[in-house]
Amino acid sequence: MKKVLMIGTIALILSAALSGCQAGNKNSDTAANETKGTAITELWVGTKNTTRINTSDPVQAAVLVSRTLWTAKTDNNRPSSVVLTDVSNWQIAAASTDLIHHPSNGPVLFFDKENVPSVTLEELKRLKPLGAEGNDNIQIVIVGPVASSVEEQLNSLDMKIDKIEGDDPAAIAQAIDAYYAKAAGELPQAVIIGSMDSPEYTLPAVNWIAHMPEPLLYVKKGEIPAATAEALNKREGKAAIYVLGPDSMISSKIEEELKAYGSVTRIAGDNPYENAIAFAQYKDRNNDFGWGITTPGHNFSFLTTDSTMLAIAAAPFSHLGKHAPLIFTDKDGLPDSVMEYMMNVQPKFQKSPAEGPYNHAWITGGNGAVSASAQSVIDDMLEISPAAGGNPHAGH
Mind listing the pLDDT tens digit for each residue in 258-270? Predict the structure, then answer.
């Protein structure tokens, strides 16, 4: 009974707060609900192997991800600080996910150009961030350009706030790298280089940098921005650089130029689905960079390639709980490459399915983003099955 009451209370809070929330990438089901003034009654939709964050509004999704991971009932499950950034700028928001990691240990929440949505304000009040040790007990870090009206709303919360200001993604990424190094007391030698022009190839990085301290730095297809070069120079020629994406996104010329700053490894696939899988599978045994997921017993975070801000909202799923890399899917089912990957890591049992291991997936987006049938297919592909083949429920 307590669980029903808790979810009902959250639904009332979110439905009231989201009546004016129109930011970010939404699809038709969410927009239709908001137009009619109705609330999303099922905030989480679960199957035996999947859990859906059931909204395609990035502002709301970020709050639901936060509520899922930080229950905020005791100090042990409160964040140290929260990252706040503009929902309309994916490059800055993606780089800011580096601050999800310790010592911040908190979610990314969104504001829009002139306003902090009431659902975000309510979530900040619920979380009551503890203040990050090692970062002067900061409770909120604002990343990117911010309007005075937004600052006024946040100041009313009486929390300790810091800012990483600017509107150039490469410069902001450099500033985040320096900010994290100061707060954590170390400069990570490994870095991910992503394209600031191609979110569908760059976004798999956000789950890793939320999970580990390595930053995301930006290049354009044919140019290394000065801010990125400066950040790499701080590694004094010893950077371990991982270029994420194919030559069509980040040129071989840029790859060669990056070798002036350290070792360079490209992780790539021919399309966004294969690119995300390549990143999930990659592991550098020399420094343990990368997920290296090639066997059963793991968690995954599924989104569609056009759910840019939802992917950033869901990045904390790699930080706490069943740590999950990002995998792209289609609205109505799994692309062939993703189906093959899921088959390769499908759990198998010898005598009983109680043996484990088990797979799980987070799905972020309403039915207009990832259909109910697609969720069912994902659930089936994660189900533990007999090693000998046949009925997956044999042995019960």
Answer: 999 999 999 999 9
